[in-house]
Write a structure and sequence with these properties.
This protein has no helices and 7 strands. The chain is an all-beta fold and about 100 residues long.
Length: about 100
Protein backbone atom coordinates (compact mmCIF):
# COMPACT_ATOMS: atom_id res chain seq x y z
CA UNK A 1 0.00 0.00 0.00
CA UNK A 2 1.47 3.36 -1.01
CA UNK A 3 0.09 6.83 -0.51
CA UNK A 4 1.73 10.20 -1.16
CA UNK A 5 0.29 13.63 -0.46
CA UNK A 6 -3.13 12.27 0.54
CA UNK A 7 -5.39 13.12 3.46
CA UNK A 8 -8.09 11.34 5.47
CA UNK A 9 -6.90 7.78 4.93
CA UNK A 10 -8.65 4.98 6.83
CA UNK A 11 -7.56 1.34 6.67
CA UNK A 12 -9.62 -0.88 8.97
CA UNK A 13 -7.99 -4.22 8.10
CA UNK A 14 -5.05 -5.06 5.85
CA UNK A 15 -3.21 -8.34 5.25
CA UNK A 16 0.12 -8.18 3.39
CA UNK A 17 2.09 -11.25 2.27
CA UNK A 18 5.05 -11.95 0.00
CA UNK A 19 8.13 -9.81 -0.60
CA UNK A 20 7.10 -6.15 -0.95
CA UNK A 21 9.78 -3.46 -0.79
CA UNK A 22 7.40 -1.73 1.65
CA UNK A 23 4.27 -3.33 3.00
CA UNK A 24 2.91 0.15 3.75
CA UNK A 25 4.58 3.37 2.58
CA UNK A 26 2.98 6.68 3.55
CA UNK A 27 4.59 9.98 2.47
CA UNK A 28 3.43 13.53 3.14
CA UNK A 29 0.05 12.37 4.43
CA UNK A 30 -2.33 13.77 7.05
CA UNK A 31 -5.13 12.29 9.13
CA UNK A 32 -4.30 8.62 8.78
CA UNK A 33 -5.81 5.70 10.68
CA UNK A 34 -4.35 2.21 10.34
CA UNK A 35 -6.52 -0.30 12.18
CA UNK A 36 -5.54 -3.99 12.31
CA UNK A 37 -2.55 -4.66 10.06
CA UNK A 38 -1.23 -8.21 9.58
CA UNK A 39 2.04 -8.61 7.66
CA UNK A 40 3.48 -12.06 7.02
CA UNK A 41 6.41 -11.26 4.78
CA UNK A 42 9.25 -13.21 3.21
CA UNK A 43 11.41 -10.05 3.10
CA UNK A 44 11.04 -6.28 2.79
CA UNK A 45 10.15 -3.49 5.17
CA UNK A 46 6.84 -3.56 7.02
CA UNK A 47 5.70 0.05 7.53
CA UNK A 48 7.42 3.31 6.59
CA UNK A 49 5.91 6.73 7.30
CA UNK A 50 7.91 9.80 6.28
CA UNK A 51 7.94 13.09 4.40
CA UNK A 52 10.84 12.34 2.07
CA UNK A 53 10.54 14.15 -1.23
CA UNK A 54 8.73 17.25 0.08
CA UNK A 55 10.26 18.08 3.43
CA UNK A 56 8.09 21.20 3.73
CA UNK A 57 4.96 19.02 4.03
CA UNK A 58 5.07 17.14 7.33
CA UNK A 59 3.27 13.85 7.79
CA UNK A 60 0.93 14.41 10.73
CA UNK A 61 -2.04 13.04 12.67
CA UNK A 62 -1.22 9.37 12.21
CA UNK A 63 -2.89 6.75 14.39
CA UNK A 64 -1.84 3.10 14.34
CA UNK A 65 -3.87 0.57 16.33
CA UNK A 66 -2.33 -2.90 15.84
CA UNK A 67 0.46 -4.13 13.56
CA UNK A 68 1.69 -7.71 13.47
CA UNK A 69 4.82 -8.03 11.31
CA UNK A 70 6.62 -11.31 10.70
CA UNK A 71 9.52 -12.01 8.33
CA UNK A 72 10.50 -8.43 7.50
CA UNK A 73 14.14 -8.36 6.41
CA UNK A 74 14.65 -5.04 8.22
CA UNK A 75 12.86 -3.41 11.13
CA UNK A 76 9.11 -3.75 10.96
CA UNK A 77 8.43 -0.02 11.05
CA UNK A 78 10.33 3.14 10.24
CA UNK A 79 9.54 6.77 10.87
CA UNK A 80 11.80 9.47 9.50
CA UNK A 81 12.22 13.18 10.09
CA UNK A 82 11.68 12.66 13.83
CA UNK A 83 8.70 14.93 14.41
CA UNK A 84 6.68 12.91 16.89
CA UNK A 85 2.96 12.56 16.46
CA UNK A 86 1.32 14.47 19.33
CA UNK A 87 -1.16 11.60 19.79
CA UNK A 88 1.43 8.85 20.20
CA UNK A 89 0.05 6.33 22.65
CA UNK A 90 -3.25 8.17 23.05
CA UNK A 91 -6.45 8.38 21.04
CA UNK A 92 -6.44 11.19 18.48
CA UNK A 93 -8.81 14.14 19.00
CA UNK A 94 -12.40 13.55 17.96
CA UNK A 95 -11.95 15.46 14.70
CA UNK A 96 -9.42 12.91 13.41
CA UNK A 97 -11.06 9.75 14.73
CA UNK A 98 -12.24 7.34 12.01
CA UNK A 99 -15.95 7.16 11.47
CA UNK A 100 -17.69 4.13 12.92
CA UNK A 101 -19.73 3.60 9.74
Amino acid sequence: MHSRGAANIEVSYLNVTGTPVYGILLRNVTNVWLGQIDMRLDAGLGVRIDNRGDTSQWTRNVRVDTVYAQGASRRSHRRRRHRVCPFAGRPAPTSTQPSSA
